[in-house]
Design goal:
- The chain is of the alpha/beta class.
- The chain has two domains: 12-62 and 307-405, Alpha-Beta Complex (Aspartate Aminotransferase, domain 1), CATH 3.90.1150.10; 76-304, Aspartate Aminotransferase, domain 2 (3-Layer(aba) Sandwich).
- It has helices at 12-18, 51-54, 63-73, 86-98, 110-128, 148-153, 178-184, 208-220, 242-246, 272-275, 291-304, 307-330, 356-365, 388-405, and strands spanning 30-34, 37-40, 45-48, 103-107, 135-139, 170-173, 189-194, 197-198, 204-205, 224-228, 252-255, 266-270, 334-340, 343-348, 368-369, 371-373, 377-380.
- The structure holds pyridoxal-5'-phosphate.
- The site of pyridoxal-5'-phosphate has 15 residues, from helix 5.
């Protein structure tokens, strides 16, 4: 028999002994959460401005989600795709009713949803166009996941290094540069994949004119437009999906992260016409669309598509921005704040480039969870329902963090 948790105490030091070294987690280990607060092994409490990297959009252990998870957990977890299930059908119907989508494919992670989107684009082109129509155009600094296809679509060479040979037929152009895209487009392009707001690449919103132009170029060259809304979708922009705010509709959209609020689920949304190319047996996933994940996803979808919750995103954004601006002005650490809805990027002054992790660790010492994005951004992705009191307390702790760091003295390395 294995030992119970109480008999087998674990610490951060164990990580280096038993885990693959692809992550370098912080010194503390959180053990529970409630709303926008988290507690570690020593019962120290943190305000959560990280939201599990834009995943826990309704906060930790939301009572309605806990109850749905327990209820479905006592009913039915898994069947395989030999049979369909009620939660998957209900969630898909709700997604189709609320968006441009007419068909949904469920997966377990963002990377898998994008993998399905890119495969679908190729298959659709193979069925409807010339053999030469294989190219995919993506953007520099994009992030689309870690499967070999999606990491190659992401425009960050550091993440593909050593994994060659990479899938071919993927080209990159600068983000928000319509002329560069126009120059890269021809009738051999089967799809353009873009994040309406680049997340990992540094919290960079697309210009509306740019996205409109991308749509027009895709139409001109019969290429499918894929919006990767894995980070910015599900309410984070203040709209249910960011495409709604931009008024630019893609052919395929991928969602994950907040869709499960921490329970793994992802979805690829598309039209009936395009979906028809994913013919019987052409693609699939053992876990994708299982009843447990879809039951949670359905409850999350209900809560986030509530107009009152979406309206609250803008209001919370204003409160955060009002509190962040004085910190930008007072300390020589942030030069600016940018982003969309409740996905905010605090732009680091040059002296702090590449040192985001020091700030993240210093914030932990002050009882605050924040995120890094790229070399130059401290990213905030709090829950969309974070309370005013938690926003204000988080801002106080951020001020304490910056005060401790200002003058260029690095925080004690955790
Ligand atoms: C997180 C993310 C992904 C990858 O999602 P995983 O669930 O980690 O596979 C893809 N695209 C974007 C925009 C993301 O933010």
């Amino acid at each position: 028999m294995s030992q119970s948790a109480a008999e087998l105490p674990v610490t951060r030091a164990d990580f280096d002994e038993v885990m693959v070294p692809n992550y370098n987690p912080a010194a503390v280990i959180p053990v529970r959460g409630e709303g926008s607060r988290v507690w570690d092994q020593d019962d120290r409490e943190y305000v959560d401005f990280a939201g599990g990297i834009a995943v826990t959009a309704l906060g930790h252990c939301h009572p309605q989600l806990v109850s749905v998870l327990k209820e479905q957990g006592e009913k039915l977890w898994h069947l395989s795709n030999v049979m369909t299930n009620e939660p998957a059908l209900r969630l898909a119907k709700k997604i189709c009713a609320a968006t441009f989508a007419e068909r949904v494919y469920f997966a377990n992670s963002g990377g898998e949803a994008n993998e399905a989107a890119l495969k679908l684009a190729r298959k659709h082109a193979a069925e409807h166009h010339s053999e030469a129509k294989r190219r995919i155009v993506a953007f520099d600094n994009a992030f689309h996941g870690r499967t070999l296809f999606t990491v190659t679509a992401g425009g960050q060479p550091a993440k593909t290094e050593g994994f060659e040979p990479l899938p071919s037929g993927i080209d990159h152009v600068p983000f928000n540069d319509l002329d560069a895209l126009a120059a890269a487009m021809d009738d051999d392009v089967c799809a353009v994949i873009v994040e309406p707001v680049q997340g990992e690449g540094g919290i960079v919103p697309a210009d509306t004119e740019f996205l409109r132009g991308v749509r027009a170029l895709c139409d001109r060259h019969n290429a499918l437009l894929i919006f990767d809304e894995i980070q910015i979708g599900m309410g984070r922009s203040g709209h249910l999906f960011a495409y709604m705010g931009y008024g630019v509709t893609p052919d395929i959209l991928t969602s994950a992260k907040a869709l499960g609020n921490g329970f793994p689920i992802a979805a690829m949304l598309t039209t009936a016409d395009i979906a028809a190319s994913l013919t019987l047996g052409s693609h699939g996933s053992t876990y994708g669309g299982n009843p447990l994940a879809c039951a949670v996803g359905e409850a999350v979808f209900d809560l986030i598509s509530d107009p009152a919750l979406l309206a609250g995103v803008g209001e919370r954004r204003e409160r955060l921005l009002a509190g962040l601006q004085p910190l930008v002005d007072k300390y020589d650490i942030f030069t600016d704040v940018r982003g969309s809805g409740l996905l905010l990027g605090c732009v680091l002054a040059e002296a702090w480039h590449g040192r985001g992790r020091e700030i993240l660790n210093a914030a932990i010492e002050q009882g605050l969870l924040v995120l890094v994005a790229g070399q130059t951004i401290i990213r905030l992705a709090p829950a969309l329902n974070i309370s005013h009191a938690d926003i204000d307390e988080g801002l106080r702790r951020l001020q304490a963090t910056l005060a401790a760091l200002d003058g260029g003295t690095p925080a004690k390395q955790a």
